[in-house]
């Protein structure tokens, strides 16, 4: 039971990271119907920027960890968003009218480019950071096995829930959210009614990148080391999460992320850890067989 | 008029330079470096300055020359039309060149080796073309079938000493079987769901090969895979007991080139078989059904085509050719490991198909040659190789979104008014 609880906590934390990245995939898919393959790299760039800013602040000490994290978050958000915006502007916007696979290949090319760009600039070694937040609560103890939730894990879960709530508000209550939903339903009609399509799509990419940056900062804090390759696997898992939850659906992305985090945590606890990715994809296949549009996806009606 | 144009150009260039500055500042300006005390920072603001200056100058020139058009890439020169020879003549020239290639005066060992690599990708591209180009199914895990073929041959040859010629069909069959096993549950899914499942399947195969050490040798892979023989004649310097070598049988002096040239012709024949097969399939009802399905699934259903079966046949056939190519890859390398079957391979093969123009057979050849030769030529810049490769993929796509050789018209169509 105690062991179960501990894995639950770890899985939820991991799931929060996947969920945040998955939202970026699902939003972009919802609005322009393309798989943004470079999104995992955007997350990696967010993580890298956070390591750089942490290291830059190192000499000043972390008098207040909260302040340090807030500063890092702001820097990562700004710079990563610029990456998100630029990627859309350069690699996707010119291809918006062409057939379905063209932006996909462009995105794969972008992903290869960004991964190796960071590799070239920052080297291949793992970049460690000093732990910023230490300590935690002891929840239970059983024969020496301590169930612990660290302050960091609490912070991650709270931050994710708050972000999700804010995001849902943004989509449902603001003018921007309305234009996004309008573009999602019918881009041409939205344009006729005066929605600025280019701006809406750009902002969608910026928001996706911002969430990926938050996920990147969380990754840096939680695992304490970053390299240029983390984007690929995390992107793959997050995309799987988005599909599992039903691509195009925001709560679905979060649900998918949490589910995948939990699957990984529990699989690693009871089965050979090397096969946890196999388990994740296996469950994806099983879910898709029974619910071909994901858990919360709307079944879409194809018209002639 | 000139003044206004210049000021617009300046404004645009300044905006681009500012974005470039924001992009470059964190990742180019600061480099994390390992020091004695842990991790330190090296600043490189000069690099940032150069980068920003280049973007500014480049954008200024572009904007000034092309008026205020914001679209950079809409103005690249159109692709030169393919030589105005008829399709048949073009193919014939291509074929003659391919057949004569190993004996041309400039061909050395290095060139023939590269040509073999290009042909492997041409074959993989043609195989995937059945799935993506003809049937319109997005497969991001094609490399899985390539891996199945390679490991089938390697394991059978190493453990049971079966010959290449016996294993080749087995590798294809097993890969096709995997294709059916994967395809059966998931082919009902729509395009992009299928993409992620195939991608996941590719990763699953790789993870299993990497971790099931007793079966596949894990990360160390399988070594000393036997080379193919020429109808029982080995390409060795010394004959084994009771056997003759290729060079001895034909009274030639031994040369390692014999085997390479043989491998070249082997993959050429395999690739041409793939091509011939695809071209014939397109004329059969099932091939026409693939293309019809790509164009309109609902209409197909209304006409009584069973989409799942049709898709499954495309998937299995594509997988089979992937398996053949895999077996060839294993025998050519003599060594395989899971590293050769990562997602990037799937991405490159898919890029070959899409850049080639989705369904165009000759386009695949051009795209494969391009995507394999470019990294090869950049070998001296190994550090920048993959960066340039990624950038090239984006740029070609922007330049020719419909592929190098656009070809999407169905093989059969009713003429208007017919």
How would you describe this protein?
The complex is a heterodimer of chains A (304) and B (418). In chain A, 72% of the residues lie in helices and 6% in strands. With 304 residues, chain A is mainly alpha-helical. In chain A, strands 1-4 form a two-stranded antiparallel sheet. A two-stranded antiparallel ribbon of chain A has the order 2-3. In chain A, helix 1 packs across helix 9 (230-245). The longest helix of chain A is centred in the N-terminal third of the chain and has 31 residues, at 2-32. Chain B is mostly helical and 418 residues long. Chain B is built from 16 helices and two strands. Chain B has a two-stranded antiparallel ribbon. Chains A and B meet through helix 2, helix 3, helix 4, strand 1 and helix 9 of A and helix 1, strand 1, strand 2, helix 7 and helix 12 of B.
Topology readout:
The complex is a heterodimer of chains A (about 300) and B (about 425).
Chain A: H1 2-32, H2 39-57, H3 65-92, H4 101-122, E1 127-128, E2 136-142, E3 145-150, H5 151-173, H6 175-185, H7 187-192, H8 197-223, E4 225-226, H9 230-245, H10 250-270, H11 276-290
Antiparallel strand pairs in A: 1-4, 2-3
Chain B: H1 2-29, E1 30-35, E2 38-43, H2 45-65, H3 87-100, H4 109-134, H5 143-160, H6 164-186, H7 191-211, H8 213-216, H9 246-249, H10 257-281, H11 285-295, H12 297-302, H13 307-333, H14 343-356, H15 361-377, H16 382-399
Helix pairs in contact in B: 1-2, 4-10, 4-13, 4-14, 4-15, 5-6, 5-7, 5-13, 6-13, 10-13, 11-13, 14-15
Keywords:
heterodimer; A: 304 residues; mainly alpha; two-stranded antiparallel ribbon; two-stranded antiparallel sheet; 72% helix; globular; B: 418 residues
């Amino acid at each position: 039971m105690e062991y179960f609880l501990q894995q639950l906590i770890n899985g939820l934390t991991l799931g929060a990271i996947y969920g945040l990245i998955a939202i970026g995939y699902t939003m972009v898919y919802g609005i322009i119907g393309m798989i943004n393959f470079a999104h995992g790299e955007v997350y990696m760039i967010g993580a890298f920027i956070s390591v750089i800013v942490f290291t830059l602040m190192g000499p000043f000490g972390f008098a207040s960890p909260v302040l340090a994290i807030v500063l890092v978050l702001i820097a990562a958000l700004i710079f990563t968003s610029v990456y998100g915006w630029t990627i859309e502007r350069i690699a996707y916007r010119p291809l918006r009218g062409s057939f379905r696979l063209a932006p996909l290949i462009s995105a794969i090319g972008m992903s290869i480019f960004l991964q190796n760009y960071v590799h070239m600039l920052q080297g291949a070694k793992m970049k460690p950071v000093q732990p910023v937040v230490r300590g935690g609560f002891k929840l239970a103890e059983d024969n020496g096995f301590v169930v612990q939730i660290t302050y960091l894990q609490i912070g991650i879960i709270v931050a994710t829930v708050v972000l999700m709530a804010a995001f849902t508000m943004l989509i449902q209550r603001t003018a921007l959210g309305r234009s996004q939903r309008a573009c999602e339903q019918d881009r041409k009609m939205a344009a006729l009614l005066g929605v600025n399509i280019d701006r809406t799509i750009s902002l969608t990419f910026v928001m996706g990148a911002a969430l990926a940056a938050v996920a990147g900062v969380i990754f840096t804090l939680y695992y304490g080391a970053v390299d240029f390759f983390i984007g690929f696997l995390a992107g793959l898992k997050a995309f799987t999460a988005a599909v599992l939850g039903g691509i195009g659906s925001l709560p679905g992305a979060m649900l998918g992320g949490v589910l995948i985090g939990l699957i990984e945590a529990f699989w690693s606890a009871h089965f050979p850890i090397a096969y946890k990715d196999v388990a994740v994809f296996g469950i994806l296949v099983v879910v898709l067989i029974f619910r071909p549009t994901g858990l919360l996806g709307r079944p879409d009606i194809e018209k002639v | 008029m000139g003044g206004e144009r210049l000021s617009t150009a300046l404004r645009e260039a300044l905006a681009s330079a500012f974005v470039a500055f924001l992009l470059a500042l964190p990742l180019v300006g600061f480099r994390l470096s390992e020091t004695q005390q842990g991790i330190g920072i090296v600043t490189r603001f000069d690099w940032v300055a150069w980068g920003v200056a280049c973007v500014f100058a480049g954008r200024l020139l572009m904007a000034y020359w092309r008026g205020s058009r914001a679209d950079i890439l809409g103005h690249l020169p159109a692709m030169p039309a393919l030589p105005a020879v008829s399709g048949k003549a073009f193919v014939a020239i291509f074929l003659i060149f391919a057949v004569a290639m190993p004996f041309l005066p400039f061909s050395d060992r290095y060139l023939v080796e590269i040509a073999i690599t290009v042909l492997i990708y041409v074959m993989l591209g043609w195989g995937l073309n059945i799935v993506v180009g003809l049937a319109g199914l997005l497969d991001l895990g094609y490399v899985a079938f390539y891996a199945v073929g390679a490991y089938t041959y390697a394991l059978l040859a190493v453990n049971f000493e079966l010959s290449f010629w016996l294993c080749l069909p087995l590798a294809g069959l097993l890969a096709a079987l995997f294709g059916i096993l994967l395809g059966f549950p998931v082919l009902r899914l729509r395009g992009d769901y299928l993409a992620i499942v195939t991608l996941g399947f590719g990763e699953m195969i790789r993870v299993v090969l990497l971790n099931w050490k007793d079966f596949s040798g894990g990360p160390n892979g399988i070594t000393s895979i036997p080379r193919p023989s020429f109808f029982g004649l080995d390409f060795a310097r010394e004959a084994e007991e009771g056997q003759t070598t290729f060079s001895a049988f034909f009274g030639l002096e031994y040369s390692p080139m014999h085997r390479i040239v043989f491998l070249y012709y082997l993959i050429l024949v395999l690739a041409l078989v793939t091509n011939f097969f695809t071209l014939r399939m397109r004329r059969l009802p099932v091939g026409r059904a693939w293309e019809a399905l790509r164009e309109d699934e609902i209409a197909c259903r209304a006409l009584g085509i069973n989409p799942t079966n049709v898709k499954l046949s495309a998937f299995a056939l594509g997988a089979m050719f992937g398996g053949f190519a895999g077996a060839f890859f294993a025998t050519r390398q003599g060594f395989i490991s899971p590293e050769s079957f990562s997602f990037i391979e799937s991405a490159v093969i898919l890029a070959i198909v899409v850049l080639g123009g989705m369904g165009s057979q000759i386009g695949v050849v051009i795209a494969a040659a391009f995507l394999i030769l470019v990294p090869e030529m950049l070998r001296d810049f190994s550090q920048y190789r993959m960066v340039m490769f990624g950038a090239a993929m984006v740029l070609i796509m922007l330049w020719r979104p419909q592929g190098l050789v656009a070809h999407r018209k169905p093989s059969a169509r009713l003429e208007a008014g017919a």
